[in-house]
Amino acid sequence: MRVSKVLKAICGFGRDVVIIDADVVVDDRPRLVVWVRPKVRRRGRCGRCGGLASWFDNGDGPRRWRHVDAGFAIVEVVAVARRVDCGSCGPTVAAVPWARHASRFTRAFEDLVVHDAIVGNKQAAADRYAVSWRAVNNMCIRVANEALGQVDLLDGLLAIAIDEVKYKKGHKYLTVVCDHVTGRVVWAAKGRSKEVVGDFFDALGERAAELAFVTADGARWITDVVAARAPDAIVCLDTFHVIGWATKALDEVRREEWNKLRRAGATKAAKAFKGLRFLLRRNWENLTAAQKGTIRDLEKANSRAFRAWQLKEELRDIFGLPLRKAQRALDDWLAYASRSKLTPFVKLARTIRVYRTSIEATIEWRFTNGIAESNNAAIGRIRANARGFHDPNAFITMIMLERAGLAPDLPWAS
Fold this sequence. Notes:
Layout: H1 3-11, E1 17-25, E2 31-38, E3 44-45, E4 52-57, E5 62-70, E6 73-80, E7 83-86, E8 90-93, H2 107-119, H3 122-129, H4 133-150, E9 159-168, E10 172-179, E11 185-190, H5 194-204, E12 213-216, H6 220-229, E13 234-237, H7 239-263, H8 267-274, H9 277-281, H10 289-301, H11 303-318, H12 323-338, H13 343-354, H14 356-365, H15 370-385, H16 392-403
Parallel strand pairs: 2-6, 9-12, 12-13
Antiparallel strand pairs: 1-2, 3-4, 4-7, 5-6, 7-8, 9-10, 10-11
């Protein structure tokens, strides 16, 4: 077998790359230097826009690209960087089959490093391949931009989930939009405000009319913009957040009763009552027989706390009912909560009346914000692996690579 064929197989080059020569440079770590050229064509392609253009000159001469290592050796690809005379971009370095434009690394090497940066973090990938953190960051940006240029993530959206995720201390948030059909992130931007949600609908354009469902946590900075920009979309309020409101109201009642016992001097009873906090928060079906007995005893020991727990559980049960039964049950629940003389639940009843249409839509169509919360958990792992992000754009790049399905395949897998 000829040496050129062996080198092609080792480096993973296709028929559009011609091996000219090769040499091994002995150093602290051996370097395999492979001289190549693209297959001769009458016209080249612009490295920026990809358009066909006539050849201009040989540029500044030979350039080097770092390639995937071969055993103990670092592999470098060397070629003359010819330029083309592009009608749109002017004289530009021609596109080469082994590397992306304006990169000192081959496509295969970048895909490998970005893959490791996604499953680990950028610094670990930089240390492993003996490159700088900034080089890895630039690789991630190039790979993400290339992938986003080849696919429209906003095309064909029918049901979306909008939520925020924290990226830095000091109430620094990103707004993240997910597709209910694919489960992937389709859009992300810095901030959480009506302006940011408006930017998403600006990017969506006329396709906003195709949206059928939008799930959210009830924040007005989301629902107000959705009502204005996609008036025909059905807004579903996330079940988790509604039950969270009820749990918070229950905790306020428990805290009031605990303070009453403490001020009355019943220290022992107050201490025992304080220990019920997490027990009251748990779902009834998840309690042990002994814990269920404790809840039943609470009816005689503290009727207000028991009544608050009942209201929380009854509201949770409503979401499992068919729509008609749920509507009647919600009417009864609102009437009971309003007359319960429990201030937190009286306020909660007012809030639920405001969002009742969205709550009934959730019960009817069974859409929740669970897909957004699942992606948020994965995004949290990205943040933890990287030990945080100073730049929100760098964070968004990693989110899109992993959670939008833009991650490159390993070179040998493609």
